[in-house]
């Protein structure tokens, strides 16, 4: 660091923090391959979304900076957007007449329901459900993985209202050979080819039949926003959010593993057995991702803030663990040398994220980081650094870290 920086010269505060972070990196305080969080830069934002960072504009993909995920229930303005194709035009539709077809090899009584039918025939349920893109955290992969370079913001936990998928499946009858429940949506493939689908994924019957798997028309008490699947979508919390089909038009009860767009090849799959970074993996050695792994975020304070030496600092965030619950959240202010248990709340319901808080204080002025680490109810912990490299860059559940600049 230069004297100019130390004396608070013309350089911005941000630059100062960045230099301090680089120093930490060069003096090997951080594990190899880990870039100080403060070095990540913010660029453009998406209108109608509160400070989300656009990763791609065709199709639209945008993620939420960690401190904007501080709400207990994620508002529409702060929910990440992940589109694989071109969303349907829904501005002037009559939502009540939106049609959902239920059929497939293992469906006894195929039927078509309007949204109004679904709303009048089945019991309504409201649940807070966490959705996280399978590729959240991809930006850290080395060798890099192609695709949206999500950092930590492709996750959210809004409240959803709809009917249970299982009630709908039972009304249509499932044969004994039902294996998978798949979706189709009204969005179109980027190529414009009407024969091709942007994405059509599914879940095994056991996940589809869980009480929390919903066919939803509302988010946080409002009709679904256009970008999030208006007027109807699936929400299967805890699994890669790619199974939660938007602009839902068809549910197929399949007698085999679904083979729709982005179900096969290397999509949403990881090597069945761990591989060395950069390895070439044959398609037949890739396994479908099911439950997402345990993970947590520090949502307050925002990374890079200044805080006074010795003064208590309230740190908080959320933690989640796919189909499991979170048993413990720990924080570290010394790069993982020591960890301290945070206060952890139970989830609002199964498959909702859990809030945690902790007071920390720093004895020494200068650049510091706060790390958070969650442990699930089976004792499985988040790793501190990128876990198993995989060709498409899924399932990075490494600990989240934020920077704080402590002033004397
Ligand atoms: N029809 C349809 N459903 C979809 C997608 C899509 O592109 N089309 N993207 C999926 C993926 S990959 C993710 S991560 C989530 C994102 O949901 P969100 O945009 O509401 O946050 O929607 C899933 N459902
Ligand atoms: Mo995704």
Description:
- Residues 1-42 have low confidence and may be disordered.
- The protein folds into three domains: 1-30; 95-132 and 153-288, Sulfite Oxidase, Chain A, domain 2, CATH 3.90.420; 295-407, Sandwich (Immunoglobulin-like), CATH 2.60.40.650.
- By secondary structure, it is mainly β.
- It has helices at residues 3-6, 13-26, 115-121, 165-172, 205-208; strands at 53-57, 60-63, 81-82, 99-103, 111-114, 125-128, 131-132, 155-156, 159-164, 180-185, 202-204, 214-219, 222-223, 233-235, 248-254, 269-271, 286-288, 295-300, 305-308, 313-320, 326-332, 340-341, 343-344, 354-360, 366-376, 400-407.
- It has a five-stranded mixed β-sheet.
- It is globular and about 70 Å long.
- It binds ligand MTE and molybdenum atom.
- Molybdenum atom binds at residues 82, 133-135, 240-242.
What can be said about this structure in brief?
Helices cover 9% and strands 30% of the residues. By secondary structure, it is mainly beta.
Architecture blueprint of SSEs:
Blueprint: H1 3-6, H2 13-26, E1 53-57, E2 60-63, E3 81-82, E4 99-103, E5 111-114, H3 115-121, E6 125-128, E7 131-132, E8 155-156, E9 159-164, H4 165-172, E10 180-185, E11 202-204, H5 205-208, E12 214-219, E13 222-223, E14 233-235, E15 248-254, E16 269-271, E17 286-288, E18 295-300, E19 305-308, E20 313-320, E21 326-332, E22 340-341, E23 343-344, E24 354-360, E25 366-376, E26 400-407
Parallel strand pairs: 4-15, 19-26
Antiparallel strand pairs: 1-2, 2-3, 4-5, 6-9, 7-8, 9-12, 10-11, 10-15, 12-13, 12-14, 16-17, 18-20, 20-24, 21-22, 21-25, 23-24, 25-26
The protein binds the ligand Nc1nc2c(c(=O)[nH]1)N[C@H]1C(S)=C(S)[C@@H](COP(=O)(O)O)O[C@H]1N2 and molybdenum atom.
């Amino acid at each position: 660091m230069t004297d100019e920086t130390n004396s608070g010269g013309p350089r911005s505060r941000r630059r100062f923090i960045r230099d301090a972070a680089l120093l930490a990196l060069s003096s090997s305080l951080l594990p190899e391959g880990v870039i100080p969080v403060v070095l990540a830069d913010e660029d453009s934002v998406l209108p109608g979304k509160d400070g989300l960072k656009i990763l791609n504009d065709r199709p639209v993909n945008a993620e939420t900076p960690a401190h904007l995920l501080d709400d207990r229930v994620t508002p529409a303005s702060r929910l990440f957007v992940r589109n694989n194709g071109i969303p349907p035009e829904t501005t002037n539709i009559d939502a009540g007449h939106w049609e959902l077809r239920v059929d497939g090899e293992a469906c006894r009584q195929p039927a078509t329901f309007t949204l109004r039918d679904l709303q009048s025939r089945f019991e309504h349920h409201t649940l807070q459900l966490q959705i996280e893109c399978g590729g959240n955290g991809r930006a850290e992969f080395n060798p890099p993985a192609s695709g949206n370079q999500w950092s930590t913001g492709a996750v959210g936990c809004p409240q959803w209202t709809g009917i249970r998928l299982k009630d709908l499946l039972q009304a249509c009858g499932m044969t004994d050979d039902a294996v998978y429940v798949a979706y189709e949506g009204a969005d179109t493939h980027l190529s414009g080819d009407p024969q091709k689908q942007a994405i059509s994924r599914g879940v095994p019957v056991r996940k589809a039949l869980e009480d929390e798997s919903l066919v939803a028309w509302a988010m946080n008490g409002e009709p679904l926003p256009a970008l999030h699947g208006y007027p109807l979508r699936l929400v299967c919390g805890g699994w890669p959010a790619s199974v939660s089909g938007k602009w839902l038009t068809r549910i197929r009860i399949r007698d085999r593993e679904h083979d729709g767009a982005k179900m096969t090849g290397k999509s949403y799959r990881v090597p069945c057995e761990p591989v060395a970074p950069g390895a070439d993996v044959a398609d037949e050695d890739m396994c479908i991702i099911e439950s997402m792994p345990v993970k947590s975020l520090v949502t307050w304070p925002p990374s890079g803030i200044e805080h006074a030496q010795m003064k208590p600092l309230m740190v908080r965030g959320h933690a989640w663990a796919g189909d499991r619950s979170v048993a413990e959240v720990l924080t570290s202010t010394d790069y993982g040398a020591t960890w301290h248990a945070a206060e952890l709340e139970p989830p609002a319901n199964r498959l909702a994220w859990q809030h945690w808080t902790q007071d920390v204080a720093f004895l020494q002025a200068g650049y510091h980081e706060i790390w958070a680490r969650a442990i699930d109810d089976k004792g499985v912990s988040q790793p501190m650094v990128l876990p198993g490299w995989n060709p498409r860059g899924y399932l990075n559940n490494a600990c989240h870290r934020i920077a704080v600049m402590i002033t004397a």
